[in-house]
């Protein structure tokens, strides 16, 4: 295993527990009274419904600005959450965030096709960036985002919230500790029933793809962080009913198999036509199972021969996985260190997803570059 993979495995296995301990104990001090300011870009279902309400659970982060194309909504949200009117921006005057010293980090909660543009503009405005997953519609865009942040000397983190979710962290810890013996097989199915055929997620130009880009990335990410390895090849098959109005432009189901250097086989499924959220690790001495595995809340974990031994993980690293994620980047900014899920992590996923799509198109195994 390479040095990078060794480091990555260590960070995933130990980083969450260390961060949890540090945040809980106050061992990682911050300047007195200093909370890092976030601007939320996009007041859709995720930004407004999930992220903004989480600032009340944060220790190191505060909401200071909003970016929206709907001025009435922006004013309403600003009033509700105590954001000054001077902290309201639209997509035309977005670059003026450079003049607001209260904004340290910009969180991009926009359709995928807009991630690259608004990340690059944020970096040029002198702001750190937290960008939702998938990182961009192509690996080329991901590379441009990384380069822009590097050139500006700003941090880029991707919104892989499960790296801050206690159940996932406990599953990783137990797998690394050898509680199920030598890992042989990984399985994950992630999907939900897509609704409105006109939703942006079902428009390829805005989403970059269908279920694989949206919900399938959870299965792919879990395969990587649960095994602690990078896949060496992929084989994929797509099944889509093109008569369904939801799937005129994007795929419904993609089944993909990942081969890992140790011999572990990962079997994954993404879908837009059925509800599923499941992860299973099979070792030669037992199993680790999670269902739901990557939900916003209520994730469950079993370790053993079956489902007779449910595990309740210790709390942390934040009051919620969302707060843990927000505070992690804030802490990295305050202490000038790299986040555990940087832009390179998002780029790696997109490169693998591109190989998944290629395999499905060409109906052959695709070798992945190291």
What does the average pLDDT come to?
A: 92
Major beta sheet, specifics?
9 strands, mixed
Uncertain runs: 1-30
Rg over C-alpha atoms, rounded to the nearest angstrom: 20 Å
Task: Please describe the topology of this protein.
Layout: H1 3-25, E1 36-41, H2 45-51, E2 61-67, H3 71-81, E3 88-89, E4 105-108, H4 115-124, E5 128-131, H5 139-152, E6 156-158, H6 166-176, E7 183-193, H7 204-207, H8 211-214, H9 216-227, E8 233-239, E9 253-259, E10 265-271, E11 273-283, E12 287-290, E13 301-304, E14 310-311, H10 321-335, H11 343-362, E15 366-367
Parallel strand pairs: 1-2, 1-4, 2-3, 4-5, 5-6, 7-10
Antiparallel strand pairs: 7-11, 8-9, 8-15, 9-10, 11-12, 12-13, 13-14
Helix pairs in contact: 1-6, 4-5, 5-11
Give an account of the 3D structure.
- The structure is a single chain.
- This protein is α/β, with parallel strands linked by helices.
- The protein has 11 helices and 15 strands.
- The protein has helices at 3-25, 45-51, 71-81, 115-124, 139-152, 166-176, 204-207, 211-214, 216-227, 321-335, 343-362; strands at 36-41, 61-67, 88-89, 105-108, 128-131, 156-158, 183-193, 233-239, 253-259, 265-271, 273-283, 287-290, 301-304, 310-311, 366-367.
- A 9-stranded mixed sheet has the order 14-13-12-11-7-10-9-8-15. Strands 3-2-1-4-5-6 form a 6-stranded parallel sheet, sandwiched between helices.
- Helix 2 (45-51) links the parallel strand 1 and strand 2.
- The radius of gyration is 20 Å and the shape is globular.
